Hints:
Layout: H1 8-11, H2 19-38, E1 98-105, E2 113-120, E3 123-129, E4 132-137, E5 154-158, E6 160-165, E7 175-179, E8 184-196, E9 199-209, E10 214-225, E11 237-247, E12 252-261, E13 270-285, E14 296-297, E15 301-302, E16 304-319, E17 322-333, E18 341-349, E19 353-361, H3 362-366, E20 374-383, E21 387-401, E22 404-418, E23 438-449, E24 459-467, H4 472-476, H5 478-483, E25 489-497, E26 500-508, E27 516-532, E28 537-551, H6 559-563, E29 582-593, E30 596-598, E31 601-614, E32 623-647, E33 652-670, H7 686-694, H8 704-708, E34 709-710, E35 716-717, H9 723-729, E36 747-762, E37 769-782, H10 786-789, E38 795-805, E39 810-818, E40 826-836, E41 840-850, E42 855-867, E43 870-879, E44 884-895, E45 899-908, E46 913-922, H11 929-934
Antiparallel strand pairs: 1-4, 1-7, 2-3, 3-6, 4-5, 5-8, 6-8, 8-9, 9-10, 10-11, 11-12, 12-13, 13-16, 14-15, 16-17, 18-19, 18-46, 19-20, 20-21, 21-22, 22-23, 23-24, 24-25, 25-26, 26-27, 27-28, 28-29, 29-31, 30-31, 31-32, 32-33, 33-36, 34-35, 36-37, 37-38, 38-39, 39-40, 40-41, 41-42, 42-43, ...
Amino acid sequence: MRAPLRGRGGRSASRLNAIAVLLPQFAIFILQFAICNLALPALAQDALDPIDPTVTRLPKIDPAVQQAQFAPPPLPYPQTVPPPEPLVPAAPPGQTTFRRVQIFPRAEGMGPQAEWLTPSPGENALVIKGGVNVVIQGLSIDGLPQEFGPLGDIDIETDRAVIWTSGVNTSNPTDLAQASDLPLEIYMEGNIVFRQGDRTVYADRMFYDVRRQIGIILNAELLTPIPQVDGYQYPGLVRLRAAAMRQLDQSHFVAQDGLVTSSRLEEPSYAFTADTITFEDLQRPAVDPRTGAPLVDPIAGPVVDHNMLVQSENNYVYLGGVPIFYWPTFATDLEKPSYFIDNVRLRNDSIFGFQALLEFDAFQILGMEAPVGVEWDLNLDLLTERGVGFGTGVQYARDTFFDLVGPTTGRADAWFINDRGTDNLGLGRRDIVPEEEFRGRTFWNHRQHLIGGLLDDWTVQAEVGWISDRTFLEQYYEDEWEQNKDQLTGVRLKRTYDNQSISVEANGRVNDFFTQTQWLPRLDHNWLGEPLLGDQLTWFTHSTAAYADIGIASTPTNPTLASQFELMPWEENAAGLPIDAAGERLTTRHELDYPLDLAPFKVVPFVLGDLYHAGDDINGNNIDRAYVHTGIRASIPFWYVDPAIRDALFNLNGLAHKVVFDAEASYTDASRDLNQFPLYDEIDDVAFLEMRRRLFFAPFGGELAGTYYIPGAPSFISAKFDPRFYALRSGLHGWVTSPSSEIADDFAAVRTGMRHRLQTKRGPLGEERIIDWVTFDSNATFFPNDNRDNFGAVVGMLDYDLRWHLGDRFSVLSDGAAETFGDGLRTASLGILLNRPMRGNAYLGVRTFGGIIDSNVINTTVNYRMSPKWIGSAGASFEIGGSGNNSQTIAFTRIGEALVATLGANYDQSKDNIGVSFLIEPRFLPTLNATRKTGIEIPPAGAFGLE
C-alpha cells in the first residue's frame, strides 16, 4: 500500500529502504533454482562427517583468473573435450530412458588417474584422481516440480571423484551409457565446480545421486541469475553461500547457515543470513474460472498451480558486517517474498519532524498463508512533530472475489493519527490547526468483471472515500490530493455490448466539507455510431435518469481557512445561501451526422438536440431546458515527400511533410441560461475547486478580488474567469458523451486547427526507422458574436504545441495558449531537453504567464554521472522579478560494488520547508530508485566483473 506522507512535505524528508525486504526474496528464489534444479540430495546426518559451518573459500568468479593445477601422471585420455553428441531421443512415458556419462580431463595437459573397483557383485566403482570433468546427459526429471522446468545436462569439475554404478561397460571409462533406472552416484571433493544451465556452484565436497536426484553440498558457493520479477529478467547475479544444502524429498529442501548477497567481496557490503532455510512446494490442479473444470494445456497436459512456502530460523540482516535486524522465525509465500517488514523509511523535515515509517507484512506477522494475488500490510509510523500513526492496506488481483467469479482488482487503505501538530499547506496556510485531532482516512477502490449468474458480463465498481477533515488528504497524501480523482463512496454496475453501454450507480456524500452530488440512484445509456438509412446517417445518443441530491461545502471552522472561503455562484441561491437542490434529473441527448466524401475534403454536417429536466434549479424550482447544436465539420489532408533532402547537421535522410487542416462551424440555441443550473455533474475535482476559492484572496487576489469576483448575496464572478463559461467556450456542450449535462447556452463559434508532422528516417543502413523530426499543432477559434461569446474579441482561445527533435538525444520543446480579451490568460514556454541514458540528462526551460497574474519562471534539472562511482543531481525553480527562489533539490548518489547510496536535500519556499533524504538500496534490484529519479541507467552488480 502507499504509505502516508507522499506529498511534497513527505518527499522532502529522508527515506531508507529496508534491506531486510529484499535479500530474503533472492535467497528464496536461489533455493528454488539452485537446490531444485541442481537436485541437491538429502542424506542422513549421521552418515556425514561433522559440518564446519564456517565457509572458508570464495569461488573463482573472475574469468581472467584461472586456477593452477599440479600436472598429474599421463593417461591415455583425450586432451581436448569434444562437443556433446546428440542424445538418444526421450522415450515415451512409461518407458525406460537412457543417460550418458562422459569423463574428460579437467584442463589441457595430462589426464587424470582412473581405476575401476568392484565393492560387491554387480556394482562398480570408478575412482578418479588428478582433476576430472564429468558431463552427464539425458537426465530424467520424473517427479521434479514442473515449475523448475527440465533438469538439462550437468557439467562437473573436481579434483577427485568416486562414481558408483552398475550395468555399464567398464572397458571404456571415458564414455558410459546406461538405462536411467540404474543407480549412478558420485562423490566429489576438492575445488568442485558444478554447472547446470546458467547457474554455477563452487564447493569443497559434494555427493550426488543421479537416479534419485538427492544429495548434499558442503561449503557451497552459488552464482545464479535472479529469477524473473513481474515478467522482467534482470541481468544481474546473486551469490548464495551455505555450509550445507540438502533435498529432503521432491517437495522439501533445506539450506543450513545460508548467506545471500550480490556482493562479490569476501566481506560483503550487505547480506541476509539464516541458520536454516526450508523450502516447500505444494501443488494443486489449476481451475478454469469460467467453467470450474481443471485447466489442461494441449501440449504439456494438466496445468498445476504451485504454492511455494519458505520458512527460516534465526534470521539476520547485515550491513557492512554489522547486524541491523533480527527476527527469530520467518515464513512467506514465494509469490511475495519479504521479511516481515516490507518497507522502512527514515525522513526528517520541519512539517512532520523525524519520521520512522514501518510497513509490515500482515500475513507473516499473523502467521497466515496469503491468498493468491493478495498483499496485506500493517503500518506503524512515528512522526515526532505530529504523533504516532497506524493503519493497514490491502491490494489484490484475483480471479474471484469471495463467491463472485471474474477477474477483479482493488486497493484499500486506512490510516489514522492522533495529530498534535498543525498543518503546513503552503503560503498563507502554514500554521493551520486541524479541524479534528483524531485524523485519518479510509479508502477502497474495487473493480470486477463478473462471469456467470444473473450479472454475467457486467462490471461492478465500488468505492469508499471517507476523510476525517478537509485538510488531511492535502497534508498527508498530497500526491493523491493533486493528481487522483475525487474519492467518493458508492457502487456502479455497467455492461458494454456492441456499440452500447448501460450503467446504474448510487453513491453517498460522506465528506460534508466538500461540494459533492449524491446519486440515489442514476441510470445511464449510451449508443454510439449506429448507422441509419444504409449508412447514410450516423446516430449517437446518451440518456440519463437519476435522483440527484447536491450538498454544498461547509464553512471551515479554522479562522484562517474561513477567511479565505467563499461559495461559488453555482453553489448559492438568489439569497446568497447554499443551494438545497434535490430531486429528479432526466436528460436525453441525440446527434445525427451526415458524412459526405467530397474528396479531397471530408465533410460532416451534424445536428445535436438535448432535452433536460431537473426537480430543482439553483433557487429550488423545477427547470426544463431544450437546446439544439448544429453545424458542419470538415478536414483535408496534404502531404509531400522529398527523399533527396539530406543534411548531416540535422541528421536528415529524406523529409516528409504531412499536415491536416480541420474546421468546425457550429451554432447553439438554448432555452435557458447556464447560470440557472446547479452543477449536479461537477466539472472540476475538489482540489481544483478548493484552489479556485483561494484565488480571490491574498496572496493571490490581485484584481480578481473586488473586480472580477464580488462576494455577496449571491456572489458574482465574471464570465471571463467562470469555469462554466470556459467549458462552454471549449465546446463541452457539443459532445454527446459530455461529462456535464448542465453546460449549455446560446453560443456560436468557428474552430480551426492544423496538425503538422515533418518526418525523416534514422538508424543503421537497412534498418532505418521513421521518426517525427518536427511536430506542430495549433488551434484558433473565431466568434461571430464576439461581444456575447468572447468579451469583444473576434479571435480567441489560441494554442500551440511544438516538438523539434534535432537528434535522438536533443529536443526543443515549446507550447503556449492565449486569450485575446482584456486580462485574459497568456502563457508560453520554451525549453531544451538533452538525454544520454548512460551519462546523464538535462532540461532548461522558461515559462511565462500574463494576464491578471504575471509570472516568469525558470525551471532546470540536471542529472550527470560525474564518474563511474558518482552521480550528481540538481533541480531549481526560480521566479524572475517575483518571489525569486521557489524550490531547489540536490542529491549525490554513490554507486558501490553492491550498494547504491543517495544523500539529498531540498527546499520548498511555499511551505518554508527544508528536507533531507537518505536512501540505501541493493544494486541487484530490477528497478533502482536512483535510476527512476535520475534517468541514468546503473548496470547490475557484477555486469563488468568485480568493480
